[in-house]
Design brief:
This protein is an alpha/beta fold and about 350 residues long. Helices cover about 40% and strands about 15% of the residues. The protein is built from 14 helices and 11 strands. The longest helix is centred in the first third of the chain and has 18 residues, at about 80-100. The structure holds flavin mononucleotide (FMN).
Length: about 350
């Protein structure tokens, strides 16, 4: 067995709880995973530097074990008032039902990435992972000099090679089954749609870095399978969404166990960037919306009021219910118990695989 990832991150079990920005990955979840000998990660993509510092402080109060922080590498976003007007007209019906008014303007559509990066450099978590793009070699070098290990997310072999050339320490191979946003950054998402079983061994063969398999892994069988494909470890998101410590909304958590294998779909409707979630009325309404959406993250900013009102009013039909294709296998239980269960299950199949 390849123990490179456990060694790299100084953890006992090469299992990473996926960073899940927007609330699901609470400091309590991150600390529980790290305390159980795996690696918890803070999904910091939407956090201001101040909120990020607070979250890191809370994790450090609850755990002295290594943990990770994840950032969104910004891409090009051309703000477009005409597209915003069209999409707001399309969403007027949702706002009417929720009893809210569209914001008159939105100044900042995302937190300042450079400021987030500076906050991470100061805090120096064990792992900094990124998605939606690649850091520059200089940024990777700065993080490594601060004592962090760096991982980038790849959805294709070309992206893995690109990330390796920037000097990262590990690659997260995100298969098409994965819940949440696609990390694709070199090509269109529909030309980067490779399943985990096909993606992992091809990336393992193409790079000389530890590869972390991600997408559709929900139990010990998935972990053992990923290790057989050559992965040095796994990153699991949807499985952790249903835990007691998860900050996912109650309606989101409740919709996971028993969901059908066909219940998820990819949609750009919530954010302007394709992401996998449980199909609901909001997503379906956009399947017949012909106008181009505002770019990510402008569209994300313009749906925020709808998602917040839907959460407050317990209306899952307007929430982003991110989930992977194996969501139905989610098991609600305390986070520490989930980690222990996953390890036990995987070791029953392959003794030292995790
Ligand atoms: C609710 C949710 C939010 C996510 N947010 C992030 C994120 O902030 N950063 C990131 O790199 N990946 C994010 N992901 C993707 C995960 O890193 C990972 O690729 C995915 O969860 C793996 O598939 P699985 O959900 O089937 O385990 C998210 C996934 C989910 C389900």
């Amino acid at each position: 067995m390849n123990h490179a990832l456990a060694k790299l991150l100084n953890i006992r079990h090469p299992l990473i709880q996926a960073p899940m920005a927007g609330g699901p990955t609470t400091p309590a979840m991150v600390a529980a995973v790290s305390n159980a000998g795996a690696l918890g990660s803070i999904g910091a993509g939407y956090l201001t530097p101040e909120a990020l510092e607070r979250a890191i402080g809370e994790v450090r109060t609850a755990s002295d074990r290594p943990f990770g922080v994840n950032l969104f590498v910004p891409g090009a976003c051309k703000r477009d008032a005409a597209r915003v007007a069209a999409v707001n007209a399309h969403m007027a019906e949702f706002r009417r039902e929720l009893g809210i008014e569209a914001p008159s303007a939105i100044d900042e559509v995302a937190p300042d990435f450079e400021a987030q990066l500076e906050a991470v450099l100061v805090a120096a978590p064990a792992l900094v992972s990124t998605t939606f793009g690649a850091l520059t070699a200089a940024q990777v070098d700065r993080l490594q000099s601060a004592g962090c290990r760096v991982a980038g997310t790849a959805t294709t072999v070309a992206e893995a090679r690109h990330l390796e050339a920037t000097g990262v320490d590990a690659i997260v191979a995100q298969g098409f089954e994965a819940g949440g946003h696609r990390g694709s950054f070199l090509d269109e998402f529909d030309r980067s749609a490779v399943g985990t079983l096909a993606l992992v061994p091809q990336i393992v063969d193409a790079v000389s870095l530890p590869v972390i398999a991600s997408g559709g892994i929900m139990d010990g069988r998935g972990i053992a399978a990923a290790r057989c494909l050559g992965a040095a470890g796994v990153q699991m998101g949807t499985a952790f969404l249903a835990t007691d410590e998860s900050g996912a909304k109650p309606e989101h958590k409740a919709a996971l166990p028993g969901a059908a294998d066909t219940a998820t779909t990819l949609t750009a409707a919530f954010s302007g960037k394709p992401a996998r979630g449980l199909r609901n009325r909001f997503i379906t309404a956009f399947e017949h919306h012909a106008d181009p959406l505002p770019d990510y993250p402008e569209q994300n900013a313009w749906t925020k009021d709808i998602r917040a009102a839907a959460a407050a009013q317990h209306r899952p039909e307007f929430m982003s219910l991110w989930a992977g294709q194996a969501a139905g296998m989610a098991r609600p239980m305390p986070t520490a118990e989930l980690v222990a269960t996953l390890i036990r299950e995987a070791r029953t199949l392959i003794p030292d695989c995790i």
